[in-house]
């Protein structure tokens, strides 16, 4: 099956960041042609008045909680954690499965073609991802055995999950660690051994809150990033979510160790845990920064357009410098950088890349006028889910003409989400 | 002409903030019934799986600049101002008219039923508002005669504009002042005289940037709000945009004088001018706080859902307190408080109020599940323009089934916007 997209403004996100009006051919699950020549295919998509861009990659989520929106709002962090803990400890497989499907449909609707998840019960979430067909990097969360509500040893559970899902079409299994506040050195080491044994990422929360940093210093004599560096856990396999409370010294350690960072500004802001990581310093030190939404429990939406805009302007404001965090840099984080973190052959519109692409409708007033000169700016600052016209994942159409294929809201209206 | 809306979750925004499933009847341009009884009308709208709420009111915009998105991004404030000044000084009537129409269609698409504008050439913008049918509170901007590029005396221009537009169906004319940095006491006094003579609002920029405050202190020996209070300009007619750099003493002055504040967080953040006004203190002192988008030049979108969410979480983060700025308080600012500032008989779904209402589609994944308990939270934290199904202004349908009536994007594709 081939798809020909003609006459679109192509935001390639290639090494030159070329933006031009042209045509793209998808053959099977790969991009076969990008350029000015006419293209033909089994399915023809008219790209006139549309912007073609790589699919957005959400590098930190907990999709099993997607139906929890509005349950934990406007309360302090301790109350939030207490409420989510109670919610999580009492969940059914059906609830997790339905919530995960809901979140995946939301992400596809919003132009997200791949995401990274951190949760227990990733086997259930994997089933949802395979059924829907979205690229799911699923990290089974581990923590100290004596602190978990998981049945059995979390690290063994993670290994079973990875072993059972290696080689799946859509699911890429991996291991996670909840965070330094519930994982000792041994748990971190066992998780990293697992990541190295199976060649996966190690996905973790890191330096999200002040309390986490203070407690680590008190207990370990070191800040969280310093400590994980010193015990040899930090390397290029690590995808570290948040990293809000990193010192410049720690930024250099992240850089030296090749750690990938997932920046989750909306969640950090909404929880009041301190929202502004040292992103400009990370960029200066060539840390690979990506962007995540976090869950519907703390963000209330899985919207990477919103995350891109808010991330950009939060730093501009905090540093009193509007020239920081340029639209192009932000779009790189949400596409190219994320693909690099996941070693995914995607993140740009180039020949040979996986066909994970999005078409934005530029006929909606918020995107008028759109042209080659302002296309990147309009993606980052003016777009929202209403602009997402077409979503293609692995060469398959998942949303077209604004309609999410296979999604029927009535199947969720009375569903069990708990 | 009457409209009957049945079986919707009604977020009334009445004094009790009642939220319940029920029916609404609109007769002519007023709400005639709200409750549980069956309703009938010339037009029947099925509200099942929809949330009915008052139309959003955007209290600070410059819609004549709506086509300028992507032109002034990622540069420091001085460069931004230089670029916008050059852009503005060279505009045609056609460009302003087309840009204004574009911005009004964008706002209707996004669930905004009324807005407040600050610009010169409001006579052109008034024509666009009357043609499209959106409630437009248009403030002709004044400044010192020797500093303006307007032809003639700005205050006289404002008076002519007001005189020519009193009593219009959609347009409510008023007077504005650009700001203390280009307006001396005499200009402020003449503008206020005009507002009192014609019973209009006085709409101004106030304490938006640090430079504005420093320069005022240097020149006048007082901070901007203090100074305007001391020369008798501040009263309940005033709608003051920004007020970022207000001290607690100044907050008390705003409260004492009954000034209405328009909070424009996204624009303030994106320009790096300091984004967090003392909103909790304003609320404590009963200042009437409302929310604005500012222009597409500095915000790049006219999206009050985005503005509500960013405004809420920016304060939560800044004050390290997630319990501040509750969803209900934020929704009040965007509806009830704004109507109060404008003395507009709207802002809630109640019998006798103007029929400015919006229906949100809750069948989109981002709004599932929505029920009476989380409806307000979902409006503020989970909704975006894609949820705006129906918009009714003054009893007339302006958007239905997600389609903006009368809007044809091809009329804008090659339009002259400059």
From TrEMBL, chains A, B:
Q: Which residues form a coiled coil?
A: none
- Pfam families in the record: Amidohydro_1
Q: List, for all copies, the residue spans of the domain called Amidohydrolase-related.
A: 51-397
Which InterPro entries does this one have? Amidohydro-rel, Metal-dep_hydrolase_composite, Metal_Hydrolase, MTA/SAH_deaminase
Q: Name any one GO molecular function.
A: S-adenosylhomocysteine deaminase activity
Q: Which domain of life is it from?
A: Archaea
Q: Keyword Ribonucleoprotein, does the record have it? A: no
Keywords, A to Z?
Answer: Hydrolase
The protein, known as = Amidohydrolase-related domain-containing protein
Species assigned in the record = Thermoplasma volcanium (strain ATCC 51530 / DSM 4299 / JCM 9571 / NBRC 15438 / GSS1)
């Amino acid at each position: 099956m081939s798809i020909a997209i003609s006459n679109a403004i192509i935001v390639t996100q290639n090494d030159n960041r070329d933006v031009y009006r042209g045509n793209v051919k998808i053959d099977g699950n790969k991009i076969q042609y990008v350029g000015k020549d006419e293209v033909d295919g089994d399915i023809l998509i008219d790209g006139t008045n549309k912007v073609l861009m790589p699919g957005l990659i959400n590098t930190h989520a907990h999709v099993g909680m997607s139906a929890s929106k509005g349950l934990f709002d406007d309360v302090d962090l301790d109350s939030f954690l207490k409420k989510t803990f109670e919610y999580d400890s009492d969940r059914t497989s059906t609830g997790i499965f339905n919530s995960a499907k809901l979140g995946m449909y939301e992400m596809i609707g919003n132009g997200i073609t791949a995401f990274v998840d951190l949760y227990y019960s990733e086997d259930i979430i994997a089933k949802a991802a395979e059924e829907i067909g979205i690229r799911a990097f699923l990290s089974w969360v581990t923590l100290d055995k004596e602190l978990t509500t998981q049945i059995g040893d979390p690290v063994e559970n993670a290994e079973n999950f990875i072993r059972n899902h290696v080689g799946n079409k859509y699911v890429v299994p991996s291991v996670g660690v909840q965070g330094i506040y519930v994982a000792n050195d041994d748990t971190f080491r066992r998780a990293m051994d697992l990541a190295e044994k199976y060649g996966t990422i190690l996905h973790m929360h890191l330096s999200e809150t002040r309390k986490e940093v203070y407690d680590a210093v008190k207990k370990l004599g070191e800040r969280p990033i310093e400590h994980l560096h010193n015990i040899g856990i930090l390397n290029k396999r690590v995808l570290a979510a948040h990293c809000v409370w990193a010192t410049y010294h720690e930024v250099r350690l992240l850089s030296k160790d090749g750690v990938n960072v997932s920046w989750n500004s909306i969640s950090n802001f909404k929880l009041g845990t301190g929202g502004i990581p040292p992103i400009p310093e990370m960029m200066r030190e060539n840390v690979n920064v990506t962007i995540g939404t976090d869950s519907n429990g703390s963000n209330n939406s899985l919207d990477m357009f919103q995350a891109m805009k808010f991330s950009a302007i939060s730093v501009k404001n905090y540093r009193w410098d509007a020239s920081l965090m340029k639209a192009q840099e932000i779009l790189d984080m949400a596409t190219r950088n994320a693909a690099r973190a996941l070693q995914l052959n995607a993140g740009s519109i180039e020949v040979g890349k996986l066909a994970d692409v999005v078409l934005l409708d530029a006929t909606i007033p918020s995107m008028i006028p759109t042209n080659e000169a302002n296309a990147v700016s309009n993606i980052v600052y003016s777009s929202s889910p209403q602009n997402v016209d077409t979503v293609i994942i692995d060469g398959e159409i998942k949303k077209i003409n604004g309609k999410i294929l296979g999604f029927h809201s009535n199947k969720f209206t009375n569903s069990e989400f708990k």
